[in-house]
Amino acid sequence: MRKFLTTTAAIAVLMGMGGTAARAAENVEVLHWWTSGGEAAALDVLKKDLESKGISWTDMPVAGGGGTEAMTVLRARVTAGNAPTAVQMLGFDILDWAKEGALGNLDEVAAKEGWDKVIPTALQQFSKYDGHWIAAPVNVHSTNWMWINKAALDKAGGKEPANWDELVALLDKFKEQGITPVAHGGQPWQDATIFDAVVLSFGNDFYKKAFIDLDPETLGGAQMKEAFDRMTKLRSYVDDNFSGRDWNLASAMVIEGKAGVQFMGDWAKGEFIKAGKKPGADFVCMRFPGTQGSVTFNSDQFAMFKVAPEKVPAQLVMASAIESPTFQSAFNVVKGSAPARTDVSDEAFDDCGKKAIKDLAEANTNGTLFGSMAHGHANPASVKNAIYDVVTRQFNGELTSEEAVTELKAAVEAAK
Ligand code: GAL
Fold it and tell me: Is 3.40.190.10 the CATH classification of the domain at 145-296+371-415?
């Protein structure tokens, strides 16, 4: 197929026909923010898979964890009338673009391959708009994880902390060992990622009322103040150079034993694996204390933009390739995430991956699966950014916990 198309394109050029259409048919331009070592390794699985199907890849990486910068660049591209073929996107952002009428239609391939039956409804909420498939989900990540350096944990007695008090005791022990207790990068999305877990540790109802229902009483209440107090406590365990640090550099601190723990989504595992580290032997993955049984999820999807008709076939091949069970396994083993389909075996996954898949299925059955506030699966960007702003200012000591709850309630109310 590839050979045929390449030849056709070459002939078209030779005959002075430009050949643009023929070449465009076998190319996808992909905008994404997967630039860390682990992320790039996972993306490579997709690139190679498409290349094997005769589709070439034009890379548009926009560095910046969580995709904040990527979304700014995307807006500029679309405004200029030059949308990429496919764009890595999270949750409500996909729906926002769909509302603007900017996205294409994947119904044909979705129907042919029976996506409705195998892609969890929690993801379909964001892959479909107005009954039509607009995006292909590639994975399911979750944010309420912690990644502990195993040697440091062993030195501290080896017990995984079961609750907040035990976590604090462990962090104190890391301090005594002379390492940075908490590896963190001071960027709004990273602060918000920790806040996801801290809020969830007060219970499922609390998380749901706060971030899904946006209940003003909950956002401005006494328990939220306690959640902010916990953020202040965690802030006391980061090093002096945390401000602005990229998340993967924070992961590296744990990998190298310079820090004890990182609170981060399971893309962090991609960094550990890339560095040759083994779960159980070199690092420990566990749910943030008090959140076992619950999952705050985010799913990376490739939103497919409306493109010229000759580019659509490659777009459909890409969507189909992403949803193939073999690809789902190969990609997510490297990325640290769980597959976006319910029928993929966990056989190839390591213990953390197996746990991710199991936790996800259980949380889905038990009604304890929630969209991540920090990663755009609880609210549209306007509300998310309002929350980010308060969380970051409080984390950096610009607001007391009392001021933060008042501001949080007001900011969310205004952004709704
Ligand atoms: C998340 C995304 C992950 C990972 C992370 C850090 O929002 O879902 O795939 O890329 O950001 O960049």
Answer: yes
219 Cα to the center of ligand 1, angstroms:
26
Handedness of CA 91, 374, 40, 102 (dihedral sign): positive
> Whose alpha carbon is nearest atom 1 of ligand 1?
66
Single-letter amino acid, residue 19? G
CA 67 to ligand 1 center in whole angstroms: 7
Spans of the chain below 70 pLDDT: 1-25
Q: How many CB atoms lie within 10 A of CB 59?
A: 13
Task: Give 322-334 as a 3 state SS string.
Answer: HHCHHHHHHHHHH
Q: Report the separation in Å between the CA atom of 370 and the middle of ligand 1, taken as the mean of its atom positions.
A: 17
With a 6 A CB cut-off, is 300 part of the ligand 1 pocket? yes
d(CA 16, ligand 1 centre) in Å: 44
- Ranges of each domain in the chain: 7-141+298-352, 145-296+371-415
Which of 30, 31, 34 has most ligand 1 atoms within 8 Å of CB, for mutation?
34
pLDDT score, position 25:
61
Nearest CA to ligand 1 atom 12: 65
Choose which CATH entry (3.30.310.170, 3.40.190.10, 2.60.40.420, 3.40.1160.10) describes domain 7-141+298-352: 3.40.190.10
